[in-house]
Write a sequence for this structure.
């Protein structure tokens, strides 16, 4: 009798539908025990977090930013001396070029040693030994409140003008003055153009003009770097027979004549106007004229 009861019970239990895998209830993943979680450690637990977890995404992004900024900062700091060295070398190349001494393969540092740097007091046109010309930083001086003055009338668009600048003298074998290399800069259309103008020993004839830094548009304002345009400056005269500043960059020659005329760049009238303004400013009484007077007088 007890066996019959068991059979009946078994029949009752098997009365439901047949078993299929689909009907198997989902196996519930058991949450890791607290002991397991502690044993994993914070990094392991972080890595085990699902990839679409917002906190994980934000943390990874922040870590990436941090690492990238550290790499960029380290590169910037470690490369700075190299950048400064290259900037100094580039300036030397430009001084050598504007003086017409550059040739392919030339040892620029060696040629540059033939130039005499001096720190010039613009107002008097005299050299000063207040600063070491090998250390003097013209750009920093132009920003220094104690070494520069604001400009009310500012045709070159430079806002402040330094009292002192570095100029370079080039002498021939006999020691006589051959050229003076003068730094000039001013605003074009998009940027401040920095360059050098080389003036012959007569203090009036331009040997060359060359910019070493600007951000004018390639093919338009950046044509200031075009050798054909730069060649237009050779032998132009700063001042006319009466001593008036006459050099002009324009579309048509000035009344003083072609000796003082550099044709403006076509399609880049605004950059050309900037160059006209900056050259005329730096060659004026407010710029290098006191010094050029001394050059013309043969004092150097
Ligand atoms: C994208 C763009 C970039 C330009 N860049 C310069 C530039 O660097 N220097 C410049 O003088 N003019 C530049 N121009 C042209 C000036 O806007 C202006 O048209 C020109 O200076 C007039 O010169 P033109 O009288 O010889 O034609 C640029 C124009 C455009 C649309």
């Amino acid at each position: 009798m007890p066996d019959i009861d068991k059979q009946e019970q078994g029949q009752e239990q098997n009365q439901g539908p047949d078993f299929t895998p689909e009907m198997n209830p989902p196996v519930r993943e058991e949450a890791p025990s607290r002991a397991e979680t502690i044993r994993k450690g914070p990094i392991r637990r972080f890595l085990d977090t699902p990839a679409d977890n917002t906190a994980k995404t934000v943390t990874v992004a922040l870590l990436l930013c941090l690492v990238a900024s550290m790499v960029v900062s380290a590169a910037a700091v470690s490369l700075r001396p190299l950048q400064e060295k290259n900037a100094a070398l580039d300036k030397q190349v430009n001084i050598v070029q504007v003086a017409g001494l550059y040739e392919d393969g030339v040892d620029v540092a060696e040629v540059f040693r033939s130039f005499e740097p001096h720190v010039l007091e613009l107002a008097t046109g005299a050299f000063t030994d207040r600063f070491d010309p090998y250390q003097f930083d013209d750009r920093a001086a132009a920003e220094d409140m104690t070494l520069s003055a604001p400009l009310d009338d500012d045709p070159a668009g430079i806002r402040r003008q330094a009292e002192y600048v570095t100029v370079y003298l080039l002498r021939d074998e006999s020691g006589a003055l051959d050229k003076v290399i003068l730094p000039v800069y001013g605003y074009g259309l998009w940027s401040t153009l920095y360059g050098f103008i080389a003036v012959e020993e007569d203090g009036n004839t331009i040997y060359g003009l060359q910019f070493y830094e600007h951000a004018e548009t390639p093919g338009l304002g950046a044509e200031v770097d075009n050798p054909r345009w730069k060649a237009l400056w050779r032998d132009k005269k700063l001042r006319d027979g009466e001593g008036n500043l006459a050099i002009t960059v324009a579309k048509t020659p000035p009344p003083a004549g072609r000796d003082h005329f550099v044709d403006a760049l076509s399609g880049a009238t605004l950059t050309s106007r900037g160059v006209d303004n900056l050259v005329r400013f730096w060659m004026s009484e407010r710029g290098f004229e006191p010094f050029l007077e001394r050059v013309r007088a043969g004092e150097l």
Summary: The pocket of flavin mononucleotide is lined by residues 189-190, 216-217, 220-221, 266-271 (CB under 6 Å). The radius of gyration is 38 Å. The longest helix spans residues 54-98.
